[in-house]
């Protein structure tokens, strides 16, 4: 009987530990609307008219910021988002590029190239452009909200716990 009790206790502790680790992940920062679609930028680029006026929650790595007299445009290399809506850049290639259109002036210092961003907005169409010398179709998104992630935010909620057998060294 004591062996069975120990088995139940171990199972209970394992379940409690996994639940506690899952609870550490930050909640999503944006709530989807009823009009929000889960389609990547490269699919929208193939038939932008099909997705016109749909809401999206997209994220990725900032390529560059361009300021104009009445708006700013942020070119972004899109990536899938995790459950907290952080871009998952370690999954290989991106989802394609898109242009986030923001009313007014955007300080490029606040949106530096290489930073990770998540935004909500509405697909307004597409435009032809270039990536290097190659032609490219960029979906355009009118931005409602955006968040540039800090390194600490990207790491929060990620477990530092690992299980295994053997010797390990932590740097």
TrEMBL record:
<protein>
    <recommendedName>
        <fullName>Outer membrane lipoprotein</fullName>
    </recommendedName>
</protein>
<keyword id="KW-0732">Signal</keyword>
<dbReference type="GO" id="GO:0019867">
    <property type="term" value="C:outer membrane"/>
</dbReference>
<feature type="signal peptide">
    <location>
        <begin position="1"/>
        <end position="22"/>
    </location>
</feature>
<dbReference type="Pfam" id="PF03843">
    <property type="entry name" value="Slp"/>
</dbReference>
<dbReference type="InterPro" id="IPR004658">
    <property type="entry name" value="OMP_Slp"/>
</dbReference>
């Amino acid at each position: 009987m004591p062996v069975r009790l120990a088995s139940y206790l171990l199972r209970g502790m394992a379940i409690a530990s996994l639940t506690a680790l899952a609870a550490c992940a930050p909640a999503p920062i944006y709530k989807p609307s009823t009009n929000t679609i889960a389609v990547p930028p490269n699919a929208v680029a193939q038939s932008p008219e099909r997705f016109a006026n749909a809401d999206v929650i997209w994220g990725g790595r900032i390529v560059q910021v361009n300021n104009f007299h009445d708006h700013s445009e942020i070119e972004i290399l899109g990536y899938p988002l995790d459950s907290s809506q952080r871009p998952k850049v370690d999954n290989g290639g991106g989802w394609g590029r898109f242009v986030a259109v923001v009313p007014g002036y955007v300080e490029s210092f606040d949106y530096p190239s290489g930073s990770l961003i998540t935004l909500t907005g509405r697909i307004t169409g597409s435009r032809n452009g270039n990536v290097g010398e190659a032609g490219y179709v960029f979906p355009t998104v009118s931005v409602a909200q955006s968040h540039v992630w800090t390194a600490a935010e990207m790491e929060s909620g990620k477990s530092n716990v690992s299980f295994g057998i053997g010797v390990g060294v932590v740097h």
